[in-house]
Design a protein that fits this description.
Largest sheet of chain A: 10 strands, mixed
CATH class of the domain at 398-517 in chain A: Alpha Beta
Largest interface: A-B, 32 and 21 residues
Structural class of chain A: alpha+beta
Strand order of the largest sheet of chain B: 2-3-1-4
Number of helices of chain A: 13
Number of strands of chain A: 29
Oligomer: heterodimer
Number of domains of chain B: 2
CATH architecture of the domain at 398-517 in chain A: Roll
Radius of gyration of chain A: 30 Å
Number of strands of chain B: 8
Helix content of chain B: 10-25%
Largest sheet of chain B: 4 strands, antiparallel
Strand content of chain B: 25-35%
CATH topology of the largest domain in chain B: Alpha-Beta Plaits
CATH class of the largest domain in chain B: Alpha Beta
CATH architecture of the largest domain in chain B: 2-Layer Sandwich
C-alpha cells in the first residue's frame, strides 16, 4: 500500500467523527490502568500541535488546579466527650477563638480568626495547618454547665488522631476568575490582595487562569454537587455552589469539603496578610472527564481568552472602580499596561503549586487510585451575588458632611488672609490657583506664627504637601488619615485636583456626637 | 550595584591593597562600612554590577577574601511561590523562573535599604539579615 494511503488511514483513525465517552467507560479504563490523562496545560499544547479532534480522541481526562488564599474556609472538628461531659460554650485552640456551632463538642475553626495573643501572625488557618501536620495543639474550653453536661472548664492537648472528625470546609473556593488589584491612593495599602504600592506602582492578581478548574468547565457540566476532587493533598468533594456564586458575571465559585486527616501541608498552609489578618492557602484540583468534543473544546481555552477586571483597591467602597479589562495572558506576562505606563504585576496564588496539583491528580488517576464522578446536581448557571440590605444608619461618606472651603490665592497678603479666617470663623484656608485647583493649605496657627516671626509673604508659609480626601470616601477612612498624620482638616478634591470643599475633624466629631445623642 | 565584603588578614592589612586595586583596575567603589586594625579588617563596599566580577578577582588575586553578603533570606521550604513579593521588588531580585517558582537573586537585592517584600509574604518566608 502506498505510504500516502497509510498516512491517510492513520489520519482518518485519529480524525474520526466525534465519539463520546461515558463516565463508566472512563472509570473502567482507570481501573484497568490504561486511562489517558493529562494536566490541562499539556492538553492545551496537544490541541495546539495536533488539533482538537485528535486531542479529544487521544485523551480521556484532563486535570485542573489552583492554589490560593481561601479566606472563606475552616475546619469542622469533633473533639469527643470529656468526663464528666461538657457542653462547650467558648473554646480556644492555641489561643485562637474557635466557634462552637453544634451540640456539645463540635467546633468550627475559622481560617481568618486571629490569635488572642499573637494577633495576625497566628490564626485559624495556622491551627488547621498545625493539626494537618500532626502537631499537638492546646484546646481550652469553658461552659455554663447543665444537668446533662456538668463540666464548666476543660484544658487538654490534642492531635488530629484524637479527633473523631476533622473536615476541611471551604464555603467559597475555586473562583472562576478574580480581579486584578491596584492602588490609586498616595499611600501603601495592605489588602487581602497583598501589599499595593501607591499611585498604581504595582498590581496583583489571583487565580490560575487557563489551568483553574472552572475556567475549563465554564458551564459547570462536569463540576457540580458530588464531583470528587483533590483537596489540600487529600480527597474531597464539591458540595454545591460557593457563597457569592455569580455565574452571570463569570465569577462562579464552589463549596467543597474533604477529610483533613488525609491532607498535607504541601497543599494547605496557614498565612497572614499584613494589615488584613490570618488566612489559609489551599490546593484544589478537579479532573474533567472529556465526555464529548464540546467539553474538550472548553478545556482548550487559553489565558488570552480569560478576561478579568483591573480594580482600584485604593477606593474603600463596595463599588470599586474598574480601570480596564485584562487577560490572564497579560497578567502572567508580569507586566500590565495601566494609564499608558507599564507596571509590574504578580500573582498572589501559586501557579507553580497549581501545576503540581494538576500533575499529582493526573498521577493518582493514572495509577488507578482516583476514579471520577459526575455531579448528582448541577450548580446554578444564572444569577449573581446581592449586596447587603442596609436598613439602619448606613455608613457616612465624605460628601455627607462636606463644607464649602474658604480659599485664598498665594499672591494675597497675609493680613487679608488673617482677616478672612476671623470673618469666616475657620481655622483652615485652602490655597487655590485661578482654576480653583489645590496648591496648598494655610492654618490659623501658620498665620499666627508668621505674624509673630515677622514673615512678610503668604507664599513662605503655605504648606504645599497636602493630604486630601475624595468625596466618596467613608468617614472611617478619612478619620484614620487625620489621626495618622496628626492634622485636623483635609481639602476634598476631584480627580483633576479641583477643590470641592473641606472636611474637618470637628465636623466628624459633631457627626459622631450627633449619632450618640440622637 | 553589588555589595561585597572584603576581609583582610593580619598580613594583608599592612599593604595598601584597596588603593592598588582601584588604581590598577580603574573601578570606582563606594565604602559602606569599614573596621580595620593591626589584626586585620573588614570593608563593605558597593560596586557597579558590571565591574563586580573583575573587582572580586583582583582582590582575590592579592589574597583578600571576597564575600557577597546575604542581605535577605528566603526560606525555600516555607515559600509557596505565590508571587506576592514579585511585583513589589524594585530590583527584580525576586522573579519567577520558567516553572513559575519564585527565585531570589541575592546579588541584586537592596536588602535593608528596601525591605518592601518582607511584610508582604503571606507565609513569612522572607527575612532581612542585618
Amino acid at each position: 500500500m502506498p505510504a500516502s494511503i497509510l498516512e491517510g488511514k492513520n489520519l482518518k483513525s485519529n480524525n474520526q467523527p466525534s465519539k463520546k465517552r461515558t463516565i463508566e467507560e472512563i472509570n473502567t479504563k482507570i481501573r484497568k490502568g490504561d486511562i489517558q490523562v493529562l494536566p490541562v496545560s499539556e492538553f492545551k499544547k496537544l490541541v495546539d500541535s495536533k488539533g482538537i479532534q485528535v486531542a479529544f480522541n487521544e485523551i480521556d481526562v484532563v486535570t485542573t488546579g489552583t492554589f490560593g488564599a481561601m479566606c472563606s474556609s475552616g475546619a469542622l472538628i469533633n473533639v469527643g466527650h470529656s468526663d464528666p461531659p461538657i457542653k462547650i460554650q467558648h473554646a480556644w485552640i492555641n489561643d485562637v477563638p474557635i466557634t462552637h456551632p453544634g451540640a456539645a463538642v463540635d467546633l468550627f475553626i475559622g481560617a481568618t480568626i486571629g490569635s488572642e495573643t499573637k494577633g495576625f501572625e497566628y490564626g485559624g488557618g495556622y491551627v488547621i495547618e498545625d493539626l494537618v501536620k500532626g502537631d499537638e495543639v492546646e484546646l481550652r474550653a469553658t461552659a455554663y454547665g447543665t444537668d446533662c453536661y456538668p463540666r464548666t472548664e476543660v484544658e487538654t492537648t490534642i492531635t488530629k488522631d484524637d479527633l473523631n472528625q476533622f473536615i476541611l470546609l471551604n464555603f467559597r473556593n475555586g473562583y472562576q476568575r478574580y480581579s486584578c488589584a491596584v492602588n490609586g491612593r498616595d499611600e501603601i495599602i495592605y489588602t487581602y490582595m497583598g501589599k499595593l504600592l501607591p499611585k498604581y506602582r504595582n498590581a496583583t492578581y489571583s487565580g490560575a487562569g487557563e489551568i483553574a478548574p472552572l475556567s475549563n468547565d465554564p458551564n459547570y457540566e462536569t463540576i457540580g454537587l458530588g464531583t470528587k476532587i483533590f483537596l489540600g493533598g487529600g480527597q474531597g468533594y464539591v458540595i454545591g455552589e460557593g457563597t457569592q456564586h455569580s455565574p452571570s458575571t463569570g465569577y462562579g465559585t464552589l463549596m467543597v469539603k474533604g477529610n483533613a486527616k488525609q491532607m498535607n501541608s504541601n497543599y494547605l498552609r496557614g498565612a497572614t496578610f499584613t494589615g488584613y489578618g490570618s488566612s489559609i492557602y489551599i490546593g484544589l484540583g478537579i479532573p474533567i472527564p472529556l465526555l464529548n468534543i464540546e467539553l474538550a473544546e472548553k478545556a482548550a481555552i487559553r489565558d488570552e481568552d480569560i478576561l478579568t477586571d483591573v480594580i482600584d483597591y485604593g477606593v474603600p467602597r463596595r463599588g470599586r472602580p474598574t480601570l480596564r479589562k485584562v487577560s490572564y495572558k497579560e497578567l502572567k506576562s508580569g507586566k500590565l499596561n495601566l494609564n499608558n505606563k507599564e507596571i509590574k504585576v504578580s500573582s498572589i496564588s501559586s501557579l507553580e503549586k497549581a501545576e503540581s496539583i494538576c500533575r499529582e491528580l493526573a498521577s493518582w488517576i493514572q495509577q488507578g487510585n482516583f476514579t471520577l464522578t459526575l455531579p448528582v446536581e448541577r450548580l446554578s448557571q444564572e444569577g449573581q451575588a446581592k449586596p447587603m440590605r442596609q436598613t439602619k444608619g448606613g455608613a457616612a461618606f465624605v460628601d455627607s458632611i462636606l463644607q464649602k472651603a474658604v480659599t485664598c490665592e498665594e499672591t494675597e497678603a497675609i493680613e487679608t488672609v488673617a482677616k478672612r479666617l476671623i470673618t469666616k470663623n475657620v481655622n483652615h484656608i485652602v490655597v487655590v490657583d485661578t482654576n480653583y485647583k489645590l496648591t496648598g493649605i494655610v492654618t490659623s496657627w501658620d498665620i499666627t506664627k508668621a505674624i509673630a516671626n515677622g514673615v512678610k509673604t503668604l507664599k513662605e508659609i503655605i504648606v504645599t504637601r497636602v493630604y486630601t480626601a475624595s468625596s466618596n470616601e467613608p468617614l472611617e477612612v478619612v478619620a484614620k488619615r487625620l489621626t495618622q498624620h496628626n492634622i485636623s482638616a483635609l481639602p476634598v478634591i476631584d480627580g483633576t485636583q479641583k477643590v470641592l470643599g473641606i472636611i474637618t475633624s470637628e465636623d466628624i466629631a459633631k457627626l459622631v456626637g450627633g449619632n450618640i445623642n440622637g | 550595584m553589588v555589595r561585597m565584603m572584603l576581609r583582610f588578614d593580619n598580613e594583608k592589612v599592612h599593604e595598601p591593597v584597596t588603593s592598588q586595586v582601584i588604581l590598577e583596575e580603574k573601578i570606582p567603589l563606594n565604602i559602606m562600612s569599614a573596621y580595620v586594625n593591626q589584626q586585620g579588617g573588614e570593608i563593605l563596599i558597593d560596586v557597579d554590577s558590571e565591574h563586580a566580577e573583575r573587582l572580586a578577582k583582583a582582590f582575590r588575586k592579592r589574597g583578600v577574601t571576597v564575600d557577597v553578603p546575604k542581605l535577605i533570606e528566603k526560606d525555600e521550604v516555607k515559600c509557596t511561590s505565590c508571587g506576592a513579593c514579585v511585583s513589589l521588588c524594585p530590583m527584580n531580585a525576586l522573579k519567577y523562573d520558567p516553572s513559575n517558582k519564585v527565585e531570589l537573586n541575592e546579588a541584586v537585592c537592596n536588602g535593608i535599604t528596601c525591605g518592601l517584600c518582607v511584610d508582604a509574604c503571606p507565609v513569612r518566608a522572607i527575612r532581612l539579615l542585618g
